[in-house]
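Worked example
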Amino acid sequence: MKAWIRRWTPKRLMQVSVGVALLTILLKTAAWWVSGSVGLLSDALESLVNLAGAMFGLAMVMVASRPADEAHPYGHHKAEYFSSGFEGILIVGAALGIVWAAAHRLVDPEPLEQVGLGLALSVLSSGLNGVLAWVMFKAAEEHRSMALLADARHLVTDVWTSAGVVLGLVSVQLSGWLWLDPLVAMAVALNILREGGRLVRDSFQALMDEAVEAGVRQQIEDVLKSFEHQRGSSAIIRFDHLSTRRAGQRCFVDVHMHMPASWSLGRAAALRTNVELALMSAVPGLRATIQLLPSDVEAHFGDPGPGHHPKS
């Protein structure tokens, strides 16, 4: 399974997402046209957001794949977070548009036509989005791609939207209450509004140099612990001041490695290389910065802040 998922690169999946978004727009617009349902109209509006989000996500994935350069020595991986935030903002905008359209229909309800065909087209498009979302979730985990994760969440939101619309239309057909259609559309809008807000929040958090996940940090600590060595009550090799951050598909680790002052530089550098290789093997996409220090030396950190002037 992993080998199959690995072949679906973020760029390729985002290209597929653009194509599926175009197809679902056609299907859902046709569903709204034949039925006149404002619920199906809300579904079609969100598909337009899917298309815009997928196109922007594709552009950001291509930027993120660029190698490091002089102006961006740590790479361009954070570009994916812009995709997530942009898609979240689009979702919020679509939700507000749905509420506006549904409010007008709630005040002035209109009869629905050819509901069966409209439902069939909506269910077909939702099935396409559901399959693509499942593949994207798997690929996002494998590639550690925020852009894929954001698009997958958006597609799942689209599936739930369609499910709500179908429920509303079935309820109208069974009860004859036309106001149920716009009411369900409003409920769907509130749901996708929540999802949009979550995407925006997550992208902003990631742009603030958020630490790696607890499980990844534990992997890093386990590797470092395997290199620690003691002689009696004295630590020969030890690590401290561990800090981490995530930027797109990459993880960054800074740590101090203490060793005997009597060691030669070549011996210390060889051990550091072994530690770096072990860390990169345990956590794909990791970049480690290891500062070498004698065992009896401690590093001191402090930020005196603006306005501080050393004593003369």
The chain has a mean pLDDT of 78. The first helix runs from residue 2 to 6.
